[in-house]
Amino acid sequence: MIELEGVPELIDPVMVAAFEGWNDAGDAASTAVAHLDKEWKGEVFAALDAEDYYDFQVNRPTVWLDGGVRKITWPTTRLSVVRVGGDKPRDLVLVRGIEPSMRWRSFCNELLGFAHELGVELVVIMGALLGDTPHTRPVPVSGVTSDPDLARTMDLEETKYEGPTGIVGILQEACTHAGVPAVSLWAAVPHYVSQPPNPKATLALLNRLEDLIDLRIPQGELAEDARAWQLGVDQLAAEDSEVAEYVQSLEEARDTAELPEASGEAIAREFERYLRRRDGGGPGPVAGTGQVGPGPGQVGGHATDGGDGAAYLRDAPSERTRPPKPQPRPEGEAKDDGKGEDPAESSPESGSSGDAGASGAKGDARDEAKGDDSHVKGDDSDSGDSSED
With contact defined as beta carbons under 8 Å apart, do 108 and 309 qualify? Predict the structure, then answer.
C-alpha cells in the first residue's frame, strides 16, 4: 500500500499524464505537462524506481556537475501536485516521464495506487502523433475514452481501435478496468516537420485540456512561441516549391473536410474560451506563492530522477533542434521512424497517421496509424513519436 507523507488533502484532483517517447510526436504532450508544472510551481512528491521500469541501455542516465561534484540523474517518472487558485480551487496531479521499457502492468498499477490514495476523480493522458495535417491550420486534437458513459457525458469519442499500442493506451485501459474515469487527448503533428519542439501542438493540447476540465490555463510564452514556430516553418516550406505545393494540397483537403464544423461547435468553443480569458483578466494567483501572472514559456526536457510485461525498447531521446527543411512524403509511402504509432489512440484521417489528423479530414480518434517516420529533409534524428488513442 502506498503511503504519502507531506501531501495535503487534495481538492477535486485530476491526474494529467504524458510520456516521452513513442506517444509524444514533437514532444508536444510531455512539454504540455511540463508547462503546467512550471506555470503553477509544481512540487514533486514521488518518483518511480528507475530500476523497475527502464532499460538503461535504451534510456541512459546522465552525468552532470553540481558545484564540481559529479552526480547522476536516472530516467524515471515523477509525480508532482499543483493547486490552482481562484473561486473554485482544485488540484492537479501531474505525471511526467519516459515511456517505460518493461513491466508495464506493474507501472500502471503503481500509478493507479497513487491515484487511489490521492482521491483522483479523473485521469487525462495526453499524447501526440504524426499526421497528414498542414502546419498552417489549427492543430487537430481528439479526445477518446474506453468508457461509453464518459464518452456520452463529456462529448468524447469512444475508441474502437485494434492494434499495437503504447503506454498511453495501456494506462487508459488499466484505469478503465480499475473503475477510474480516463480520457486520452491526442494532437496531430505535421509529419513533414516533426522535430521537437512543437509549441503549436502543445498549446492545442492545453486548450483542449482547459475545455475538458473547465480550468483556465495560463499560456505564458506558448502563444508567441507557436506563432514564431509557424512563421519559421512557412519560410522553410516557401524555399521548396514541391513542399509548398504539398502543404497547399493538405490545406485544401483539411478545409473541405471541416467546412461544416467551421460555422458550428468549433467557433462556439473558441468564443467561449475568448470570453473566459477576457473576463478573467490575467491568470490568477499561483497558490502558495502569491505570484500573479504567467511565468516563463514552454518547458522541455526529460523527466529524470532518481505486474510484469514484455520489454518495449523504443524510447529514444530526441534532440531539440530547429527543424530542417521539410520534405513531403510521397503519396502512399508508409512512414516508419522506428517508434510506431500507438494505435489505440489515433484517428485514420489519412490512413498514414493515427489519432488526430490525417489528410486534413476530421479524424476518427479511434484509429491509430501504423509507424510514421516522416523526417524532414536532412534530419536523421527520430522525431514525432507516433501515438495512440
Answer: no
